[in-house]
Each structure stands twice: as structure tokens, then as C-alpha cells.
TrEMBL record:
One of its GO terms (molecular function) is DNA binding. GO terms for biological process: DNA integration; DNA recombination; DNA restriction-modification system. Pfam families: Methylase_S (PF01420), Phage_integrase (PF00589). It comes from the Bacteria. This is Tyr recombinase domain-containing protein. Belongs to the 'phage' integrase family. InterPro entries: DNA_brk_join_enz, Integrase-like_cat_sf, Integrase_catalytic, Integrase_recombinase_N, Restrct_endonuc_typeI_TRD, Restrct_endonuc_typeI_TRD_sf, Tyrosine_recombinase_XerCD. The keyword Oxidoreductase does not apply. Gene3D superfamilies: 1.10.150.130, DNA methylase specificity domains, Intergrase catalytic core. The keyword rRNA-binding does not apply. PROSITE patterns: TYR_RECOMBINASE. Coiled coil: none annotated. Residues 271-457 form the Tyr recombinase domain. It comes from Enorma massiliensis.
Length: 466
């Protein structure tokens, strides 16, 4: 049972199944099981539910969802529509955690309270919403089957229902973005979708929706892969796939052309090292020019010692320093990519208090004492990430250490903490990660190196027992 079947339908569609090779990790689905998606790009779309009503055997749940097997307390149809009700969805959205992608915990979902009316009332509610759902589906099929003239796109917006199989795929995709993504995702994510749309207009400007099959889709990916690395091509594929599956549901395409797509790409570029070791960081800090007033060297020092994100460091004001408690309060970011001004933090977990050392306290207490308390310390006009990276690059060359980026300073800070034995949970909290999973993924190389050191320690300890 694919992810999209669970995501799209309160009652799971028994016809939307895909063949797989069964392994021991997969769970067989039974009639009455409630299924939940684990992750999505927005909190509003995470934890979408679906109830399986078929007695069909040999159906297994995909690894991006989890299931709840009820004990008979619920009428199946009532459960299906109750879990999609706004009152329950609000509870689910409160559990969403993440940065660029949001996840929910199965344990937390299982702790949520749900209304349980009597059996007769449940059956009546379930039957009512089922009949409404069937009526909507019937009218939608009639609408999709009606002959309509395509409407010319006005200011980039058009409803997907106005599209025909003969419509250009690039037009359909821009329509899909406007209908389903606009206003639901952050601007930085929206920009990625719009970039994908511009690539479609560049490489397949005359491809119609009806011409999309496995062959033409693979050719599309291959064209894109000529200019991009494999991971970038994979991201491109995922952004297109969501729209294409909707086109399949709407009857504009007969079969899913993205199935078994082969992802290619250019060989990855030689990347700069992401972080410095402790010796290299000391050498870098030694060459910083900290004489006089505020400069980008002071920003480099602050990020190296706190692990702040670039946008968080730009937003720091004198009022954010709580010197009596040796902490720096982080509750906002600076919009350096657009027109400036304060913005909310990347996620709720990014609002935090970061402990700072006494040297930093002495340095900054003197530096900011005559500055406006609510104005950003480092911002004086338009700020460019490339400008600060250029300053950092020069300082790295002066120190004779590998050149890293400003974000690499954040990696350096976190890596040194992990090597020093600080727990992953504490590092995640200090960095403002939404969960330890994010920290583990980003710093997997450090964790693996620490595990190797642990193995060496265990072997030495065991050999000393003889």
C-alpha cells in the first residue's frame, strides 16, 4: 500500500496497490486498521490517516507509514472520517516536528484523545460521511469527463480541474504549485518548486500531459541529469512525482510514468571540507581581527563559539545577551535573502537559550554597551552570505587551514562538542534541531568515528583482562 494511497484517502483505495517483495520488516494490513503517514513537507499535511476496509490478504504497509489496530471500539467508517476531522487534525499538527520536512511520533499519536460515541451513533455518522464522499466523487468524475475548453493562464494561476490531457505539462505543473503549494509551504521551499517549473519549461516546453509515459519521463530526467548531480536529480524527481500522481488521479494520465524511474546525474563535485578540527579552529580564531568595533570577524567568532545559524547570528541584538546568566537568547532570524527585517526562527525548537563562555561575555559586554538594545549588532544595510564567506575564506588562508563556509563553522562547533563527549541530545538542543534524528543524520560521520574509537577502547579493555 503506497504512501499516496494513505495520504489521499480517508478510506484506503483497494485498487491503488503496488507489487513489492515482502520482507520481515513489513506489516500486513487487516480490515479496520487505521494507517498514518509519518512525514510531510508541512505540519498541516503530516499524519494523514486512512482506514483499510477490505478483507484482501497479502497487503503490506509501506515503510513511510505506521498503523493502529483497533480492538472493535470503533465503527470503521466513523473512525475513517473522525481521524480526518479538523478537531483531530489540529492535535496531529501540534505533534509535527521538523525543519525542511516534518515528522510525527507514533507513540505521541497513540496518546491522543478521540471522541467515542455509542455504536449506533458511530454507524450513523460513518454512513452519512461515506454517502457525502461518494456523492463528491460522482460529481468529480462527471466534471473530469465533461468537455471543457482550456482556460488561458492568468497571472500564473489556474485550477487543475480546468486542465485537459492535451495541456502542456509545464503549465499543469505551475497550476499544481499554485493550487496545492502556494501559501502552504515556506518561501524557500516554494522557490525550489518554481525552479523545478522553470527547468520543465526549458527542457520539455512542448510536452503535453497525455504524452507522459515511462519513456518520456525517463528522457526528461536524463535531460535534467546532464546538468545536475544525482542527489539534485532525485529531488527534482520527487517534486515532479507528487504532481504527476495527482494527474493520474484526475484521469489526465492513464498510468504512473514515474514508476521504476532510474535516477542519474553528473559525478559529484569535490566538496570543501565541512568542518575544522580543534587545532585548526584555534589557528583560525588566532588570526581574527578583533580590534576596534563590530566587524565580520566578530560574527565569525560568535558562530564558532555558539553554533548559531547565519540568519540567527545576524538577528542578535544587545538585548539578547543575558550576561548575568551567561546565555544568549535566540528567538528570531534576519531576512538577509530578501528585504531585511526580523523573521521567526526556522522551527519551534530553534527558540532557545545558548550558554556562552566567560571570555565571550567579557568581549561582547564591552563591544555592545553603547549600541541600541533592540537593533541587530551586525546588520548595517544589505547583507550577503557571499560577503561573509569571502571574509572567512581569507582568514582560513591566513591561518593555513582548510577553507570552510560560515555554515561550516556551525558544523565545526557541533563536531567539536560531539568529539568532546557531549551527548547528541545536548548538541541537538544547543543547535536548535527539532529532533536528535536531525543531528544524527547531519553528523553521522562524527558519530561513526566516535563508535570506532569506542570499539578500540573496548578491545583494549578486554585485552587487559588476561
Amino acid at each position: 500500500m503506497p504512501y499516496t494511497n494513505v495520504f489521499d484517502n480517508p478510506v484506503t483505495d483497494p485498487l491503488r496497490l503496488e507489487p513489492i517483495e515482502i520482507d520481515s520488516k513489513q506489516s500486513e494490513v487487516r480490515c479496520g486498521d487505521a494507517l498514518f503517514t509519518v512525514s510531510s513537507e508541512t505540519p498541516q499535511e503530516v499524519g494523514m490517516s486512512s482506514v483499510w476496509l477490505s478483507d484482501q490478504h497479502n497487503v503490506y504497509l509501506n515503510s513511510f507509514c505506521f498503523g493502529y489496530r483497533q480492538d472493535g471500539s470503533f465503527d470503521n467508517l466513523y473512525l475513517a472520517y473522525m481521524l480526518r476531522a479538523r478537531v483531530f487534525r489540529k492535535q496531529i499538527e501540534m505533534l509535527a516536528q521538523g525543519i525542511s520536512r516534518f515528522n510525527i511520533s507514533k507513540r505521541k499519536v497513540m496518546e491522543l484523545a478521540v471522541p467515542v460515541p455509542g455504536a449506533a451513533e458511530q454507524r450513523a455518522i460513518g454512513a452519512f460521511f461515506s454517502s457525502v464522499d461518494e456523492l463528491i466523487t460522482l460529481h468529480q468524475r462527471k466534471l473530469n469527463g465533461a468537455q471543457r475548453k482550456p482556460v488561458r493562464r492568468k497571472e500564473g494561476k489556474k485550477m487543475a480541474a480546468q486542465m485537459l490531457p492535451t495541456s502542456l505539462f509545464c503549465d499543469y505543473y505551475r497550476d499544481w504549485i499554485a493550487t496545492y503549494k502556494e501559501g502552504a509551504i515556506r518561501k524557500v521551499t516554494m522557490d525550489k518548486y518554481l525552479l523545478t517549473a522553470s527547468w520543465l519549461e526549458r527542457i520539455v516546453p512542448s510536452l503535453s500531459v497525455s504524452e507522459l509515459d515511462r519513456g518520456t519521463y525517463q528522457q526528461l530526467l536524463n535531460r535534467y541529469a546532464e546538468y545536475h548531480e544525482r542527489q539534485t536529480t532525485m529531488d527534482f524527481h520527487h517534486q515532479l512525482k507528487s504532481a504527476i500522481l495527482d494527474a493520474v488521479d484526475e484521469g489526465l494520465i492513464n498510468r504512473d510514468p514515474t514508476r521504476k524511474a532510474v535516477i542519474k546525474g553528473k559525478p559529484p563535485r569535490v566538496k570543501k571540507p565541512k568542518y575544522l578540527n580543534q587545532f585548526e579552529l584555534h589557528k583560525l580564531l588566532d588570526v581574527l581581527n578583533l580590534e576596534g568595533g563590530i566587524s565580520w570577524d566578530w560574527l565569525i567568532l560568535l558562530i564558532a563559539k555558539t553554533g548559531l545559524r547565519f540568519s540567527e547570528a545576524l538577528a542578535v541584538t544587545p538585548d539578547d545577551f543575558i550576561f548575568s546568566r551567561q546565555v544568549l537568547s535566540i528567538d528570531k532570524t534576519w531576512d538577509y535573502k530578501e528585504n531585511g527585517g526580523f523573521l521567526p526562527t526556522k522551527n519551534r525548537s530553534s527558540i532557545r537559550k545558548v550558554q556562552i563562555d566567560w571570555q565571550l561575555i567579557i568581549q561582547f559586554s564591552e563591544l555592545i554597551k553603547n549600541m541600541p538594545p533592540h537593533e541587530p549588532i551586525f546588520v548595517h544595510g544589505k547583507v550577503y552570505n557571499s560577503t561573509v564567506n569571502g571574509v572567512l575564506g581569507r582568514r582560513c588562508r591566513e591561518a593555513g587551514v582548510p577553507e570552510i563556509t560560515i555554515h561550516g563553522l556551525r558544523h565545526t562547533h557541533a563536531s567539536l562538542l560531539l568529539f568532546a563527549g557531549v551527548s547528541i541530545a545536548s548538541v541537538a538542543k544547543r543547535l536548535g534541531h527539532s529532533s536528535m534524528t536531525t543531528t544524527q543524520k547531519v553528523y553521522l560521520h562524527v558519530i561513526q568515528e566516535l563508535e570506532n574509537q569506542d570499539i578500540d577502547l573496548v578491545m583494549r579493555s578486554l585485552s587487559g583482562l588476561c
